[in-house]
Specification:
This protein is mainly beta and 566 residues long. Helices cover 5% and strands 44% of the residues. The chain is built from three helices and 44 strands. The radius of gyration is 25 Å and the shape is globular.
């Protein structure tokens, strides 16, 4: 898998709205940019992008639902925020206009962004899409309750009609790259029967108590990659499902940081089957107040179950995760049916929960046990009362399992192949800090002597809880869902040499002028100094070739060295 790149641009659209720390001005809530963006997307040639830019202080767009065409990318620049309309009438999917209400059937809202049969399309850029799920809906200009308040009011048999942020359906090769998604009223990214989907360097930041705000749900798709991303939300961080044929298969979720959320999940719908799923090199940084925090999770029941097989969770670190491991074939209490969940060939390898958490590993019955291998699995501080198990065939080793002596009970068998005394998988505290950064690449090649500045952004990867935000709002009308902005400095290095330093502003996006670089290839990295809220860390990797030019009596100026073949 190679890192995506931004496509060439067909059209550039300049922002007309200006957002501040609390978002748009009330007077701007009707200045909709939907038509101009949709027109540009529709007219764009395949393989190109519509770029949304700042213009002076203007840095925002406001949209109602749009459609991404086949092979076209929406490219959102650094510093640009695309806000979702707060008017439920903009999202109505049915003639009875139920979006923004409670009904028994649901399905009353179109998504903010739809990509149906949009092969080769994508959403990219270092900008932000903000769903504004925390703010009151605006019906005919009159504020009501928020999307998230509506979700909290939904009690069976009623369900909330809230729009998803992005729905990708029947698409091959859709890509999310570098984009930040925030505060969706419902799921952030939902897939359905897609192939070759990629999410790379995506940031999803939403409160843990914003109900049903899943991060990325691959659904019943195949050949999916989710990598180098930060996901913190109010439901599953990632949820693989198998609701419809052909089921879900060949899914890789690697090198990601999960904050709050309900875990690296499979289910609950698995009736069409789920197979060949890898969760690898993932950190989970929970919050003690979040009672729904999960780590590694497979969930289903007889109303929706099927075969879940060849699943691997490897190189996993967890901190403050209340339910560290959950394999549950009885997800919905009182469920009826004959779709029995079957979990087979499940592997947990190099898994370390650094704080106490519960473990549930269950099979459905003696005829359909769960088969699982545990190799170097440790839950620190675990007690017998933390473990629930029945109808499980365990294989242990070759590395230790710190709760091996507790594995016993109804329908439980243990094959102990432990042959080493290796230490638990290492999980440094830096993995769990709610902060990250990235260098925003500039030109790949640069003439010698030309000035270069690089942009860097240092961003928080969790949100203030929604209920805390509501309390804060009563005391401060300018309260937001963002954690305290990082302060301090960003230093840019060329190898070991310092080539630029700048202080962070409240916007967390900073341009750093660099001293002149000599001809040759240069790989730039950065460090953040840390402050009273956040630790220091190293980030970024930007390679630039500085081109020396020499005069030739016959041919004039020509590039030499690293640029000669370009």
């Amino acid at each position: 898998m190679t890192e995506p790149v931004f496509p060439p641009v067909c059209t550039k659209l300049a922002a007309q709205l200006t957002s501040g720390p609390t978002g748009l001005r009330p007077a701007d809530e009707t200045v909709i940019d939907t038509a101009s963006i949709q027109t540009a997307l529709t007219a764009c040639a395949p393989g190109q992008a519509v770029e949304l830019q700042t213009k002076g202080p203007a840095n925002a767009f406001l949209i109602a639902p749009i459609q991404i065409p086949k092979a076209v990318t929406l490219l959102i620049d650094p510093g640009v925020t695309v806000f979702a309309s707060r008017n439920p009438r903009d999202y109505d999917a049915t003639a009875d206009k139920t979006c923004g209400t409670l009904t028994t059937s649901g399905g009353g809202c179109n998504p903010l962004i739809r990509a149906n049969r949009s092969d080769g399309a994508g959403i990219m850029g270092y900008g932000v899409i903000d769903g504004r799920g925390e703010l009151p809906m605006l019906l005919n200009g009159t504020p009501g309750i928020s999307w998230w308040d509506l979700a909290n009011q939904a009690v069976s048999p009623l369900t909330q009609n809230c729009p998803r942020m992005l729905q990708v359906s029947n698409a091959n090769g859709f890509t999310l790259y570098k984009i930040t998604l925030m505060n969706s009223p419902n799921f952030h990214v939902s897939l359905g029967t897609d192939t070759n989907f990629t999410a790379w360097g995506v940031k999803i930041v939403t409160p843990y108590d914003a109900r049903n705000t899943d991060g990325i749900d691959p659904g019943y798709s195949s050949n999916v990659t989710i990598t180098n991303s930060y996901i913190s939300d109010g439901d599953d961080n990632v949820a693989v499902g198998g609701n419809n044929p052909p089921g879900a298969s060949n899914i890789s979720v690697m090198n990601n940081h999960f904050g709050d959320g309900h875990g690296a999940s499979i289910g609950s719908y698995t009736l069409a089957g789920v197979s060949n799923v890898l969760f690898d090199h993932i950190s989970f940084a929970g919050t003690s107040a979040n009672g729904n925090q999960n780590g590694l999770r497979i969930k289903s029941d007889v109303n929706r179950g099927g075969l879940v097989q060849n699943i691997t969770y490897s190189n996993i670190c967890m901190q403050i995760v209340r339910h560290a491991i959950v394999l549950d074939p009885f997800y919905m209490a009182g469920a009826t049916g004959n779709l029995v969940p079957h979990y087979a060939n499940i592997t947990l390898e190099n898994v370390h929960a650094t704080t106490e958490g519960t473990v549930m590993i269950e099979g459905h019955d003696a005829a359909v046990p769960t088969t699982i291998t545990l190799n170097n699995v440790q839950v620190d501080g675990m007690k017998t009362s933390d473990l629930t198990q029945r109808y499980v065939d365990y294989t242990l080793g070759p590395d230790p399992v710190n709760f091996a002596s507790m594995l016993m009970g109804t329908g439980v068998t243990v094959t102990d192949n432990v042959s080493t005394s290796n230490a638990p998988y290492p999980c440094p505290s830096s993995l769990f800090a709610p902060i990250a950064g990235e260098l925003i690449p500039g030109p790949a090649r640069l003439p010698a002597g030309r000035a270069l500045a690089v942009d860097a952004q240092v961003f928080t990867t969790k949100a203030v809880p929604y209920q805390t935000y509501l309390v804060n709002l009563k005391k401060d009308p300018n309260a937001t869902l963002t954690l305290p902005a990082p302060t301090g400095t960003v230093t840019v290095y060329d190898g070991a040499a310092v080539v630029g330093v700048a202080s962070l502003s409240a916007g967390a996006l900073v341009s750093i002028p660099l001293r002149a670089l000599p001809p040759g290839a240069h790989t730039l990295t950065a460090t953040y100094s840390g402050d009273s809220n956040y630790p220091s860390f190293v980030f970024g990797n930007y390679t630039v070739a500085v081109c020396e030019r020499r005069q030739s009596p016959r041919r004039g100026s020509r590039a030499v060295g690293v640029c000669a073949a370009r």
